[in-house]
Design a protein that fits this description.
Chain lengths: 288, 329
C-alpha cells in the first residue's frame, strides 16, 4: 500500500510532464526531446531568484513560472519550432535534442554542477494513510497534480478557448476556416506546456534536489508515460504517468533494483509494437 | 561535363586521402589518437548515415551497436583470439541484432521509432552495467591486445592509425558500393516515399530491415576498432549521450551525403580540441551552433557548401563548358 501510494505520487508528477508533451504533440506535431530539461530548468530559475535577487520563496516561484513560460513556451516556439518544423519531423527532433544538451550544459556551467537543495512548499512530516506511512510532500504533490489535471481538462472541454485549442489539434485547416486563430492556439499550447513543466519542476525538485542532469531520466519517463498511455489523449498521459510511477516503485521494492530502469523501457517497446496508439489512445490512422 | 566532375571528385578524394596519410606524421601520440578516433567515429556515423540519411529511418541506438561490437571483440581477444577473427563475429552479431531492431521500424515511424531505438540503447547499457560476470560491470574490461600482422605491429599509435585508416577506406568503398547499388536506390526510394516505393516493386520490408542491419554492422565495426584503440571499455562509453553524438555527426555533416559523416565526425571529434580555450563552454557553443544550423541549413555542412557554391557560381553550366573548352585546347 505504501509503495503503491508513493508510486502514485511520483506518477502524478510524471503525468504532468507527459500531458504537456502530449499537448504540444497534438497542436504542433512537435516531439520535444528536451522535455526533461524543461522540467529541470524552472527549479534553477527559482534558485537564481532566491540567491541572486534575494526574493522570498513565493515570489521566486512566481518568477520561475513566468520565466519558464517566456523562455520554454514562447521563445521555444518562436525561435526553434517555427523555423524548423517545415524541414520535417526528424530535423525538429534532432534540434530539440541539441536544445536539451544546450540547457543542461548551460545550467552546469553558469549555475553549478553540484546538486542544490531546493526549498519545499510543505513541511517534511509524515502522515498515516490506511496503515501506510507517507511523507506529506508526496500527498501534497498528488493532490496538486490531480487538481491541475482536472482544471486543465475542464479548461479544454468547457471554455471557448479550450475548445478552439482542441479543434486546432484535431484539424488545423478546418479550425482556421471556422474562425479559430490557429497560430495563437498553438502558442497557448506551448505556454501551457511550459507552465506544466514548471509546476512539475517545483513539485519534484524538493524530492530529488536540483541538479543539471535531472532532466535525463525525467524526460525519458515522461515520453514513456505519454506513449504508453496514448499519445493523443490527455487522460492517456495521466494513466501512463500513474502506471509508470507505480510500476517503477513496485519493481524497485519487490523484484530488482538493478533493472528498475529497464521495466518502463520494456513496457515502452511492448506497447509500441503491440498497440502503437497506447492503452487509452485512439488510432490516428495511417498517413501517406 | 559529368566526366569532368567525376574527375574532380576523384582528385579531391585522392588529395583528402593523401592528407589523411600525411596528417599524423610528426605529430604526438595524442594528436594521432584523436585522428584515429575521428576515423572510428566516421565509420559509426557512416553506418547511421545509411539508416538515417539514405533510408530515412531514425535510430538512436548506434552507440549500443558500437558496444556490442566492442564487447564481443574485447571478450574474444582477451580469450586469445586474433582480432581478425573476433571482429567479423562482432559484425555478424550486430547485423543480426540490427535486423531484429529493424522489425519495430516496420510498424512505427518517426518519433515512435526514435523512442524504441532509444529504449534499446538504454537496455543494452543496463545489461552491460549489471551483468558483471560477463562484462565486468561498471569497471569495464582492460588490457585488450592490439592486433599484430606478422611484421606489422600496431602497438605504436602511428601504426594503429594506418591500420584504422586502411579499414576506413575499405569500409567506405563497401559503403560506396552499397549506395550505388540497386539497394542504395531502394533505400532512397524508401526515404522519399515508402508507399510509392512499394508500388514500384521495392520490397520495403526487406529494405528497411537491411538498412538497419547494415547500419548496425558499421556501428559494430567501429566498436571493434574502439576496443584495441582505447584498450579499456566500460558501459559509460556507450550510453545514450553517445548515440546522440553520432546522430549529431550525421546531421551536422549532412545526412544523406556520402562524405557527410566524415565531415560531421571531424567537427564533433576535432572541434573540442580547437575550442579547448573555451573550457567547459564547448558543449554549449556546439549545441547552439547545431540549432542555428538546423534553422538555416537543415541539410548540414555539405549542404552549406553546395549553397555557397551556387551563390558564388550561379551559372555553373556555363562555367563547366568553359573548363571543358580550356581542356580541349
Amino acid at each position: 500500500m505504501q509503495v503503491l501510494l508513493s508510486g502514485l505520487a511520483t506518477g502524478s508528477i510524471y503525468a504532468l510532464v507527459a500531458i504537456g508533451f502530449t499537448l504540444v504533440w497534438q497542436a504542433a506535431q512537435t516531439v520535444n526531446f528536451a522535455q526533461g530539461e524543461f522540467v529541470m530548468l524552472p527549479a534553477f530559475f527559482v534558485l537564481a531568484g532566491v540567491s541572486f535577487f534575494g526574493l522570498p520563496l513565493w515570489a521566486a516561484l512566481l518568477l520561475g513560472l513566468v520565466a519558464s513560460i517566456v523562455v520554454l513556451g514562447i521563445l521555444f516556439k518562436k525561435l526553434i519550432v517555427e523555423p524548423i518544423l517545415p524541414h520535417g519531423g526528424i530535423t525538429l527532433i534532432i534540434a530539440t535534442m541539441a536544445l536539451g544538451i544546450l540547457l543542461k550544459e548551460s545550467v552546469k556551467e553558469f549555475y553549478s554542477a553540484e546538486a542544490q537543495p531546493f526549498a519545499s512548499l510543505v513541511q517534511s512530516a509524515h502522515v498515516d494513510v490506511l496503515g501506510a506511512v507517507l511523507s506529506l510532500q508526496d500527498l501534497v504533490n498528488l493532490a496538486i497534480s490531480l487538481t491541475i489535471v482536472v482544471l486543465l481538462t475542464l479548461f479544454l472541454n468547457r471554455t471557448r478557448t479550450g475548445r478552439c485549442m482542441q479543434a486546432t489539434a484535431q484539424n488545423p485547416a478546418v479550425a482556421e476556416i471556422l474562425g479559430v486563430n490557429v497560430k495563437r492556439m498553438i502558442l497557448y499550447t506551448f505556454i501551457i506546456n511550459a507552465a506544466l513543466a514548471a509546476l512539475a519542476s517545483f513539485l519534484i525538485t524538493p524530492i530529488y534536489l536540483a541538479k543539471f542532469s535531472n532532466g535525463e531520466t525525467l524526460g525519458l519517463i515522461a515520453f514513456i508515460a505519454a506513449i504508453v498511455g496514448g499519445f493523443n489523449q490527455i487522460r492517456g498521459a495521466l494513466v501512463g504517468g500513474l502506471l509508470i510511477g507505480v510500476l517503477d516503485n513496485l519493481t524497485a521494492a519487490y523484484v530488482t533494483a538493478e533493472y528498475r530502469a529497464a521495466l518502463p523501457l520494456v513496457l515502452l517497446i511492448a506497447i509500441i509494437l503491440l498497440r502503437p496508439q497506447g492503452i487509452m489512445g485512439t488510432s490516428e490512422g495511417r498517413t501517406v | 561535363m559529368t566526366l569532368n566532375r567525376s574527375l574532380l571528385t576523384k582528385i579531391a578524394i585522392a588529395v583528402l586521402l593523401l592528407a589523411a596519410i600525411v596528417a599524423p606524421i610528426g605529430q604526438g601520440n595524442y594528436i594521432t589518437y584523436v585522428l584515429t578516433s575521428w576515423l572510428v567515429f566516421s565509420i559509426a556515423a557512416m553506418g547511421l548515415n545509411l539508416t538515417l540519411g539514405y533510408a530515412g529511418q531514425i535510430s538512436l541506438a548506434q552507440a549500443s551497436f558500437m558496444a556490442i561490437g566492442a564487447y564481443t571483440t574485447a571478450l574474444l581477444t582477451l580469450a586469445g583470439w586474433h582480432w581478425v577473427l573476433a571482429m567479423p563475429l562482432g559484425l555478424i552479431l550486430c547485423f543480426g541484432v540490427g535486423l531484429l531492431l529493424g522489425y519495430p521500424a516496420l510498424r512505427v515511424k518517426g518519433h515512435l521509432l526514435a523512442f524504441v531505438t532509444l529504449a534499446f540503447n538504454t537496455l543494452v547499457f543496463l545489461v552491460l552495467r549489471n551483468e558483471e560476470w560477463l562484462t565486468g560491470g561498471t569497471f569495464g574490461l582492460v588490457g585488450m591486445p592490439r592486433p599484430d600482422f606478422f611484421i606489422f605491429k600496431t602497438m605504436k599509435q602511428l601504426h594503429f592509425y594506418y591500420f584504422t585508416l586502411g579499414i576506413t577506406v575499405f569500409a567506405s568503398l563497401a559503403m560506396w558500393g552499397i549506395v550505388r547499388s540497386p539497394w542504395g536506390r531502394a533505400f532512397k526510394a524508401l526515404r522519399e516515399n515508402p508507399v510509392r516505393a512499394e508500388s514500384l516493386g521495392v520490397d520495403t520490408r526487406r529494405i528497411t530491415l537491411l538498412a538497419f542491419a547494415i547500419g548496425s554492422a558499421y556501428g559494430g565495426l567501429a566498436g571493434a576498432l574502439i576496443t584495441p584503440l582505447v584498450q579499456f571499455i566500460e558501459p559509460g562509453s556507450f550510453g545514450l549521450a553517445h548515440s546522440l553524438r553520432i546522430l549529431l555527426m550525421v546531421v551536422v555533416g549532412g545526412s544523406g551525403f556520402f562524405f557527410g559523416p566524415f565531415l560531421g565526425a571531424g567537427v564533433v571529434i576535432l572541434l573540442p580540441e580547437v575550442l579547448r580555450f573555451t573550457e567547459g563552454y564547448y558543449l554549449i557553443i556546439y549545441s547552439a551552433l547545431v540549432i542555428v544550423m538546423l534553422v538555416f541549413v537543415p541539410s548540414g555542412l555539405i549542404g552549406l557548401g553546395g549553397r555557397l557554391r551556387e551563390k558564388l557560381w550561379p551559372r555553373q553550366q556555363v562555367r563547366g563548358d568553359l573548363v571543358e573548352g580550356a581542356a580541349q585546347k
